[in-house]
Amino acid sequence: MKKTFLFLSICLLLKFLPATAQQKIVPAAVVHELTALIDSYSMARENQDTVLLKAILTPDIDQLVSSGEWRLGLATAVEGMKRSSQVNEGKRTLKVERVRLLDPNTALIDARYTIEPADGSSARNMWSTFIAVYQDDRWKITAIRNMLPTGK
């Protein structure tokens, strides 16, 4: 009796386990909204548009940049972004590669991040991961992680 119960329990577990591990399909409209958000972020960075940045970032924004600097809070993040754009001049490109919903109001967005220096030197090819939250009837960025692969 115990062996039969154990066998049936394992079978039920195996039947339902793969369903919980599957990736949820993100509606095309949501992918479009989140891609537009990242495009707005990129444009705001390119133009040093602090008004737009403040509109698309949450007050508790949390950013970790490739140099290891943590930028915590809206004022610190916006100032750091402005400073970084001035110091690391060049064309910035963010290309969304993947969007994943963690829940209906929280999204993970992975993007290729390229900075082509104004002096013509080699481009910096990085990755950025954004966490966006749906607040006040719109998506906003609440966290950013920039990574510079080492090739190891």
In summary, what is this structure?
This protein is an alpha+beta fold. The chain is 40% helix and 39% strand. It has four helices and six strands; from the N terminus they run αααββαββββ.
Describe, in plain words, how this protein is organized in 3D.
By secondary structure, the protein is an alpha+beta fold. It has one domain: Nuclear Transport Factor 2, Chain: A, CATH 3.10.450.50. The protein is 40% helix and 39% strand. The chain has four helices and six strands; from the N terminus they run H-H-H-E-E-H-E-E-E-E. The protein has a six-stranded mixed sheet. Helix 2 runs antiparallel to helix 3. About 4% of the residues have low confidence.
Give the secondary structure arrangement, pairings included.
Blueprint lengths: L1 H20 L6 H20 L2 H7 E8 L5 E3 L1 H14 L2 E14 L2 E12 L6 E12 L2 E10 L5
Parallel strand pairs: 1-6
Antiparallel strand pairs: 1-2, 3-4, 4-5, 5-6
Helix pairs in contact: 2-3
Which key phrases capture this entry?
alpha+beta, globular, 152 residues, Nuclear Transport Factor 2, Chain: A
Shape: globular
Counting copies of identical and different chains, the oligomeric state is single chain
In the CATH hierarchy, the third-tier topology is known as Nuclear Transport Factor 2, Chain: A
Strand percentage lies at 35-45%
Count of strand segments: 6
What's the total helix number?
4
How large, in whole angstroms, is the Cα Rg? 20 Å
Helix content: 40-55%
Overall pLDDT level: 86
Distance between the termini: 54 Å
- Name of the top-level CATH class: Alpha Beta
SSE sequence, one letter per element: HHHEEHEEEE
Overall number of domains: 1
Give me the side-by-side strand order of the main sheet: 2-1-6-5-4-3
CATH architecture: Roll
Largest sheet: 6 strands, mixed
Summing up helix and strand content along with how strands pair, one would put the structural category as alpha+beta
